[in-house]
Amino acid sequence: MNDEAITRRTFLEGAALLGGAAALGLAGCSSQSGGAATANNAAGPSESAASAPLEPATHRELTAEQQAVLDEVRAAIEEWVEADRDKIVELCSHLIQAKSPSEIEDVSAPTAVVEQFCASEGLPFQAINYDDKLQNMLSTTVLDGAGKHLMFNGHLDTMPAGEEPGWTVDPWGGEVKDGRIWGRGAADMKCGVGAELYAYKYLAALKDKLPGKVSISLVGDEETGLGRGAAYMIEQAADDMTADCVLSAEPSGVESVNFSSKGYIQFSVSVETPGAIAGYANESESAILIAAQIITALETIEGTEVTLPENMAALFADPEYLADQEYARGPDHAGLMTSVTVDACTIQGGSLCSVVAPDCFFEGAVVYPIGTSSDDLIAAMQAVVDEHPEATLSIDSVDEPDYSDPTDEMVAI
Fold first, then answer.
1. Cβ pair 254, 190 in contact under 8 A
2. Burial class (CB in 10 A: 0-12, 13-18, 19+), 233
3. pLDDT tens across 294-308, in order?
4. Mean pLDDT of the chain, nearest integer
5. Which DSSP letter does residue 101 get?
6. 238: pLDDT strictly greater than 90
7. Which residue, among 319, 256, 294, 254, has the nearest Cα to 381 in the 3D structure?
8. Using CA atoms in the order 60, 66, 67, 71, what is the torsion angle rounded to 10 degrees?
């Protein structure tokens, strides 16, 4: 695991881009809604878009008066971003310093930073908490007149950090050096949250110039995929959490727009054998070696056929789009977006180096795109494990994939 950082310039550009795109979305989208979109992975696949061919995304032309207002809004946001440069970076650093790795299941520290920001800026907010540590919050500002609802969305939990090789800075330090902000969550996605908060603040300040309403929803549980963040918020406040468009500042880069989220099957396998002294290996198979065989065999699932919806297939046949994805996430990333992957994530077993291991336990994840069935994948996993009577498969959670229509009018903006 290497250092995680985001450039100061990219972060500030992100705040301006989010604010500008959101303003244009509120001012320039047609009055006919293409259906409600919900945050993160709670909405599920869009059946209505599945058979539509990829056509250019469009939005209606603005009148001269609307364009003048929009130009005024954009100029104001750009001016404010420049004036608030140091404050925006400081907010990001404070969010990184508010330690919230997913394994502790506690985002109270970054939530406090967000609530302090909202309170100091006079922005309303409500808690929709899963519990006292996995906290979710929502803030909504009604703008001037009827219109669409645009929502920013982000998460406050991060992946773990601290013991992996490669760190040269304190992962929870939020240090600013060499034109970058350093620390766990700098990219995924506390700087994105910081940019969203400032974009939301700016649009709220311009509420007399734009129609509709704008919201920001921030969740405390995204990394685990267990549905205690956005999905829980939608269960508890479906009307408030339904929007015409959701913008999430996940680290896909400012050069690319992502439309889909792959699904996750989190699973575990337990292997138990009698065990034996190493010198009498004829008396028992090794639970660790059986686990290794299962892990290797599970990789065959990666060849599962994927049938993308036509509009998504057209998108992934676009060389420019694929190049943008690989620029943002590295070589070979584009191919992973439309394929199934299997990973063994943790493993433990055995007792002594002189004993044939009587037990082994490992956890893993199958990550799969739209166009595959979780039921079929689980059946294939079970077939692999059933080849070894010493092993038991447990499915710990299933988070289905989803996608948004890549021809939506917001894409044109």
1. no
2. buried
3. 999 999 999 999 999
4. 85
5. B
6. yes
7. 294
8. -130
